[in-house]
Structure formats: structure tokens, C-alpha cells
UniProtKB/TrEMBL annotation:
It comes from the Bacteria. It is an enzyme of class 2 (transferase). Its EC number is 2.3.1.180. This is Beta-ketoacyl-[acyl-carrier-protein] synthase III. It is found in: Cytoplasm. The last Arg residue of the ACP-binding site is essential for the weak association between ACP/AcpP and FabH. The keyword Signal does not apply. InterPro entries: ACP_syn_III_C, ACP_syn_III_N, FabH, Thiolase-like. It comes from Prosthecochloris marina.
Length: 327
């Protein structure tokens, strides 16, 4: 039994942080950010009393409403996030409480920017096994909570947001999540991490003074690895499924940098017209970027039955992977 996506939804906070706003607080420029990353603005969840679970719950409620079902029909909730509300309980359990999904079990999945790809593949296994009929898979991040807004090399890149899908068993084996390839390489871990707040560097005055509670990265190393890994896994999926570049209706890549997206598409021989890009409006929302793209394509009526979609991501870990969906 193949898992099919039966509803999509997204939640973006209203508050916009533009490149011009960042010019006021940092030694940076709209021109630098746009030409190096493709980003013009990003959304920020400003209310200090709201966090990732709030955005993910908004997504979950929309998914249930759009599908016309009740919350107690949900079997499982998976939330992919690297910015959970807190270390525990999981953000997925908070979502379960918020939406009243009394029959669902729920867990978080830590795959950084590849979190949604990992989570969608994981949820699809439960559907394919025949044990779960309605699974919510959500990627959500409050990246602004782990940004050092004095560090121009990281804070200009990221934004807040959440999005997700409802997956259910399909009736036709030729449609739905047809194939996936997932990878990890822990040797890249130090190039993109948040060292504080865990059991290695528990939060203390010292770790905060050392700024260990902020995201840190070697941007150049991540850039190089991302381009190669994303193009390779996408090409592998195309080869395994006998797809040419023309057969791919939409390439839906993780939105980390417009130049990474363009280089990936070029290496695959895919025209930019076939590539879903919204990094200009939202920046990098980590695990939320791919489901936001899917939700937007769906809302705009661009996804037609039989379309071939290639989802591809790269993130901290390193983690990367791709999924082939026949819509
Ligand atoms: N404004 C102005 N200047 C800047 C800024 C900024 N915001 N940031 C860096 N610079 C400066 C640097 O200090 C450097 O100056 P120097 O030459 O005097 O030292 C110069 O610009 C060039 O810096 P580079 O790092 O070489 O710039 P690059 O072209 O590589 O772009 C960037 C940097 C945008 C971070 C790029 O490397 C990148 O996108 N990497 C991938 C990062 C990423 O996507 N991480 C997350 C992916 S995975 C996940 O989402 C978890």
C-alpha cells in the first residue's frame, strides 16, 4: 500500500523581517543578502509566548479541516523540528494536546533541514505497513529562537514557519510516495550545529556567555556539500525510476540558498521553471521549507494528478535525502 498526500497546509507568522530591517541592526546590505542567498525577507514569530508547537498546531488544525475529518481519527503525529518548544515533552505531544487528537501517538524527529524528508518517509512506512490510516507529518521551526542577531553570517539566512501534510493509504499502487533515498554522514556534524542546551553543554551562564545556544555553521563547507549531495540523490531517484529531466514536473528542494537550488537544478539538467522556489519570501525555515513549497503549489492549483515530484533536502548532521512522489 502506497501512502498518498490527501491534504496540505502551511502557517507563516505575519511579522516580516526584511533585508532592509536587518541593515538597521547589522553590517550587511539588501544587495549582499539578495545576490548571495536569494532572500529578500523572512517571517518571525514575535509573540514570546508562542513557539514551534503553536505553528505546528495551526497546520494540524488546517489539515484536519481541509480533509473534513475529526482530530480523533488521526493515528500518528510526527513533527520534524530542530527548534522544539523545549527538550521534552516533544512538540508533537504538545500538538496532539492542542488539537485534541486523543487516539494519536506522537513523536518528534530530529533531522534538521532534512527533517521533513525523514519524517515523511517514516510516516509513509507506517501507512505502507497497513497499521496506520491517517498520519500527520509536519515540519516546523522557530529559527529566530536560535539565531544570534549580531552574527551576519547566519541570522540573515533563517526564518520561522511550519507546514505539513496528511498521508493516508492510496488505492492505486502507481500513485503516492513511490521511492525514497535517505542518507546521513555524522562526520559533517561540526560544520552546522547548536552546541548548547543539550547534555554535553547544559545551559549555564558560561555556555550562554559563549553563545553556545545559537546556531553555528561553516557556510562554505555546508554550501559545497549541499550542492553535491542534493543533486546526487535527486539524480539517483530519477535513474532508479527511469525519469528524464522532462518527466519531472516539479523539483521541490530545501530552500537554504538560491544558488544551492540553482546549482542542484543545473546538475540535474532541470529547467528552473520546474523548480519550486520561495526562499525570497521566507528564507530558510529548515524542516518547514519543503512542505511550505508543497502547500503553495497545491493552493495555487499547480499539482495535477500524475505529476512527478522530486523532493530533495540537505541539512545538519549531515542529513540528506530525496523522495519521489507521483501526485
Ligand atoms: N552581509 C554582508 N557581508 C557578509 C554577510 C552578510 N550578511 N555574511 C558574510 N559576509 C561577508 C563575509 O564576512 C566575507 O567577508 P570577508 O571576505 O571579508 O571575510 C564575505 O561576505 C564572503 O563570505 P563567504 O562566507 O565566502 O560568502 P558566501 O558566498 O559563501 O556566502 C553563505 C555565505 C550565504 C552563508 C553561503 O556560504 C551559504 O549559503 N552556505 C550554506 C549555508 C546554509 O544553507 N546553511 C544551512 C543549510 S542546512 C540547514 O538549513 C540546517
Amino acid at each position: 500500500m502506497k501512502a498518498v498526500i490527501t491534504a496540505t497546509a502551511k502557517y507563516l507568522p505575519e511579522s516580516v523581517l526584511s533585508n532592509h530591517d536587518l541593515e538597521q541592526i547589522l553590517d550587511t546590505s539588501d544587495e549582499w543578502i539578495r545576490t548571495r542567498t536569494g532572500i529578500r525577507e523572512r517571517r518571525i514569530l514575535k509573540d514570546p509566548e508562542k513557539a514551534t508547537s503553536f505553528m505546528c498546531s495551526e497546520v494540524a488544525l488546517q489539515l484536519i479541516e481541509k480533509r473534513g475529518i475529526s482530530a480523533d481519527e488521526i493515528d500518528l503525529i510526527i513533527v520534524a523540528t530542530m527548534t522544539p518548544d523545549m527538550m521534552f515533552p516533544s512538540t508533537a505531544c504538545l500538538v496532539q494536546k492542542n488539537i485534541g487528537a486523543s487516539n494519536a501517538w506522537a513523536f518528534d524527529l530530529s533531522g534538521a533541514c532534512s527533517g521533513f524528508i525523514y519524517a515523511l518517509n517514516t510516516g509513509a512506512q507506517f501507512v505502507a505497513a497497513g497499521t496506520h490510516k491517517k498520519v500527520l507529518v509536519i515540519g516546523g521551526e522557530k529559527m529566530s529562537a536560535v539565531m544570534d542577531y549580531t552574527d551576519r553570517t547566519t541570522c540573515v539566512l533563517f526564518g520561522d514557519g511550519a507546514a505539513g501534510v496528511l498521508i493516508e493509504p492510496g488505492t492505486d499502487e502507481n500513485y503516492g510516495l513511490l521511492d525514497s533515498r535517505l542518507y546521513s554522514d555524522g562526520r559533517g556534524g561540526a560544520n552546522l550545529c547548536m552546541p548548547g542546551g543539550g547534555s554535553l553543554n547544559p545551559t549555564t551562564h558560561e555556555t550562554v556567555d559563549q553563545k553556545l545556544h545559537y546556531l553555528q555553521q561553516d557556510g562554505r563547507q555546508v554550501f559545497k556539500s549541499a550542492v553535491v549531495a542534493m543533486a546526487d540523490v535527486a539524480t539517483e531517484l530519477m535513474t532508479r525510476n527511469n525519469l528524464t529531466a522532462e518527466d519531472v514536473d516539479y523539483l521541490i528542494p530545501h530552500q537554504a540558498n538560491q544558488r544551492i537550488i540553482q546549482a542542484t537544478a543545473e546538475r540535474m539538467g532541470i529547467d528552473l521553471e520546474q523548480v519550486s522556489i520561495n526562499i525570497d519570501r521566507y528564507g530558510n525555515t529548515s524542516a518547514a521549507t519543503i512542505p511550505i513549497c508543497i502547500a503553495e503549489l497545491h493552493e495555487e492549483g499547480k499539482l495535477q494528478s500524475g505529476n512527478n515530484l522530486i523532493l530533495v533536502s540537505f541539512g545538519a548532521g549531515y542529513t540528506w535525502g530525496g523522495i519521489y512522489i507521483k501526485w
